[in-house]
Amino acid sequence: MNTTASHDTIRAVQWHGDRLRLLDQRRLPAEEIWFDSTTSGDVTQAIRDLAVRGAPAIGIAAAWGVVLAAKTGEDLPAAMATLRAARPTAVNLMWALDRMKARVDSGADAAALEAEAQAIQDEDLAANRHMGELGAALIAPGSHVMTHCNTGSLATAGYGTALGVIRAGVEAGRIEQVFAGETRPWQQGARLTMWELVRDGIPARLIADSAASHLMKDGKVTWVIVGADRIAANGDTANKIGTYQLAIAARHHGVKFMVVAPSTTVDMATASGDDIEIELRDATELLSVSGTRTVIEGAEAWNPVFDVTPAELIDAIVTERGVILKPDEVQMRSMFP
Ligand SMILES: CSC[C@H]1O[C@H](OP(=O)(O)O)[C@H](O)[C@@H]1O
Fold it and tell me: Which of 102, 127, 152 is the last residue of a domain?
């Protein structure tokens, strides 16, 4: 298979000394528009508006937001509190801010904070490459797999989590075909994952979210590979809305279910998925497509953008620390003491 799966995938979050350059993910795939954030407030808005999105990527962006606050003399505790409130579900955001706050509290200056944010970004990229190898090793040669949402370079420091496993699996000749769910309503799969896979020359087909069970019934895929926004102490996993029903269908059809996420997505302080806050976003995101309203005026909508997959439906959790098969709290606490 002649793919051009590049090892140097796009870097959607770029630090330029006094500004954070972000690829506006609301405009993809039609336009590649970059914009600069020069204050922590700019970064908060970018996270809230999903200009930058993806659990690791929003943590990394928030870390740079703290650096911008330090460099521009903002009130650091206030800046960090505002960044922290930008989105509730992805624990990477809180993890990154806690790490930056520890440096602030220890008296770190702007240069030291810049080094800390760079370390957070570099560590994420290294974790993704390692998880790619660990996850790909679980997949038999010649496999067809399915993924949901976007977990690639756009959602991380680069390479990706679930999409990193897919990149590594393709490189290793273990994955022959990828099916990407469109991921209504924000269409991360259709707009972002397909953009990444096509650019890499990876054989990918888009499917409607509603086609996933039919795809699994046909025996076309052997793995569903997804990312995560928060993994609780018992292995319950919050991820993009629609993940839970994929896990149910996968178990029904004997398809394996893999969650891929760095340790910055693990939240051992949260006992179970019942305790994870699920972000509700504006109904307009559901009542329109690409800005064009598709539902009668006056209609209402309910727009939770994450759901929780119970650990018992997960066959493997892949982190950079290793793989947990059939995850439970005992194994989680062993890997994340
Ligand atoms: C690499 S994990 C990305 C994770 O974040 C996505 O959510 P959103 O696009 O709303 O930030 C989705 O849950 C992905 O699995």
Answer: 127
Residue 236 CB–ligand 1 contact under 6 Å: no
Q: How confident is the model at residue 1 (pLDDT cuts 50, 70, 90)?
A: very low
The CATH number covering residue 312 comes to 3.40.50.10470
Query: d(Cα 160, Cα 9) in Å, to the nearest integer?
Result: 9
Same domain, 157 and 80: no
Locate all alpha helices (DSSP H) within the chain, ordered by sequence.
40-48, 55-71, 76-84, 91-105, 110-136, 162-171, 194-200, 212-217, 243-253, 284-287, 329-335
CA distance 282 to 44: 17
The atom number, within ligand 1, closest to the CA of 279 reads 10
Nearest to 149 by CA among 214, 96, 201, 196: 196
pLDDT of 223: 98
DSSP single-letter state for residue 100: H
Asked whether residue 221 falls in the same domain as residue 81, the answer is no
| Neighbouring C-beta atoms of residue 325, cutoff 10 Å | 11
Q: Which of 150, 191, 257 to mutate to test the pocket of ligand 1 (most atoms within 8 A of CB)?
A: 150
| Ligand 1 atom 11: residue of nearest CA | 54
Expressed as residue numbers, the domain containing 263 is 128-335
The reply to whether 322 and 175 lie within a common domain is yes
Number of independent structural domains in the chain: 2
**Last-in-domain residue among 105, 127, 149:** 127
pLDDT (tens digit per residue) in 263-305: 999 999 999 999 999 999 999 999 999 889 999 999 999 999 9
Residue 245 CB: number of other CB atoms within 10 A? 16
Is 229 considered catalytic here? yes
Residues 106 and 159 in one domain: no
What pLDDT is recorded for position 8?
61
CATH number at 107 reads 1.20.120.420
Which protein residue's CA is at the shortest distance from atom 15 of ligand 1?
227
> pLDDT for 196-216, tens place per residue?
999 999 999 999 999 999 999
